[in-house]
Amino acid sequence: MSENKKLIFSGIQPTGTFTLGNYLGAVKNWGPLQDEYDCVYSIVDLHAITVRQDPVKLRQNSMQAYALLQACGLDPKKSILFFQSHNKCHAELSWVLSCTTQFGELTRMTQFKDKSAKHADNINAGLFTYPVLMAADILAYNADLVPIGIDQKQHLELARNIAQRFNQRYGEFFTLPEPYIPKAGAKIMSLQEPTKKMSKSDENPNACILILDDKDTIIRKFKRAVTDSEAEVRYAEGKDGINNLMTIYSAVTGKTMDEIEAEFFGKGYGDFKLAVGEAVADHLEPVRSEFSRLINDKAYLKECYVDGAQRAERITQRILTKVYRKVGFVDAK
Ligand code: ATP
Ligand code: LTN
User: Are residues 122 and 168 in contact, defined by beta-carbon separation less than 8 angstroms?
Assistant: First the structure.
């Protein structure tokens, strides 16, 4: 890590295969940042257990997510790629920060409201304090920028508030992190209910494209995507399904909305859906083939994540030691 480059931190939960939403809203944008910034990317397994996870599946999903990061263009030599649970500083800092976070702030988090409605039989304390751990992830590195989809903006604002409050109480210390939200693809919607965000944990398999789906599956899911009763490929209010498909097509082809409208002028939704399906499948093909190569090389992956965790801990231990001193704990050494 260099002194003069800005630092980026982001994380993704190992709660299942990444969706096209995770990819376009987050992971796809992480690779191109690697040259300009010092980047730290984490598989946030501590966050994943805020909803019930089967231990065997969690371990599989975690290895899959780690391989997927690399398949999506992240280079373990350029960036730090690691599992959150392998660096103890995240959980330790989280405790300190939880003591500068107010109950009222956490009750306002929309993700907490959504997830506690969805998992009414398991509204655990971790689900409630989830955003404090996320703040710790970011502040443990004094990160400058945090690339995320739009749904995480509220959590990032909370992280800034926590940092500010800590700085007021103990003296200037934490950098206030800025969100980095992509212009196209910051919120990809469900293919079945286009007013809801596409999510890994959606029960309806037709609602989301998984980045490891094969070409036929991708095309079939797009064919079934919910649209409207018109037949015009046009970006407009009330056309949530079509707007979403146009956003996806634009994000994978680089075409503007005007260009897309011109390309499909006079054609029906069937042609458009097929074109979106083919463009997405072709775009994801290199990710899929790189993933199948990597996932079979467990020894290599282990080498990468062990090294990643050591490098991550080296940064955060220095910061955590200073935090402990500021708070008033007696030096351990
Ligand atoms: P879960 O369904 O398990 O809560 P998720 O699919 O929402 O998970 P996360 O691991 O919480 O995914 O998010 C990883 C990153 O992907 C975050 O930066 C988040 O903002 C982004 N992201 C998630 N869903 C979408 C989406 N539909 N569109 C754009 N970005 C998204
Ligand atoms: N809460 C995020 C995942 C996450 C994260 C982070 C993102 C955990 N820690 C730190 C950015 C920075 C989510 O996507 N649900």
Answer: no
Which pLDDT does position 186 carry in this prediction?
85
Give the Å distances, CA to CA, from 3 to 7, 10, 37, 38.
10, 19, 11, 10
Counting from 1 in the atom list of ligand 2, the atom nearest the Cα of 147 is 11
Nearest atom, ligand 2, residue 134 CA: 9
For the whole model, what pTM was predicted? 0.95
Nearest CA to ligand 2 atom 5: 11
Atom of ligand 1 nearest to the CA of 199: 6
What residue's CA is closest to ligand 2, atom 14?
Answer: 12
Name the average pLDDT for the chain.
Answer: 96
**Tens of pLDDT along 126-184?**
999 999 999 999 999 999 999 999 999 999 999 999 999 999 999 999 999 999 998 88
The answer to whether 2 touches 34, Cβ cutoff 8 Å, is no
For 194, list phi and psi in degrees, rounded to 5.
-70, 10
Ligand 1 interacting residues, C-beta cut-off 6 A: 12-13, 15, 19, 21-22, 25-26, 148-149, 151-152, 186-188, 197-201
Cβ-based burial of 107 (10 A; exposed 0-12, middle 13-18, buried ≥19): exposed
Q: What digits encode the pLDDT tens for the residues 28-82?
A: 999 999 999 999 999 999 999 999 999 999 999 999 999 999 999 999 999 999 9
- Alpha-helical runs (H) found in 99-230: 103-107, 110-118, 125-139, 153-170, 215-223
Instruction: Name all domains of the chain by residue range, CATH numbers in brackets.
Output: 7-185+298-327 (3.40.50.620), 205-292 (1.10.240.10)
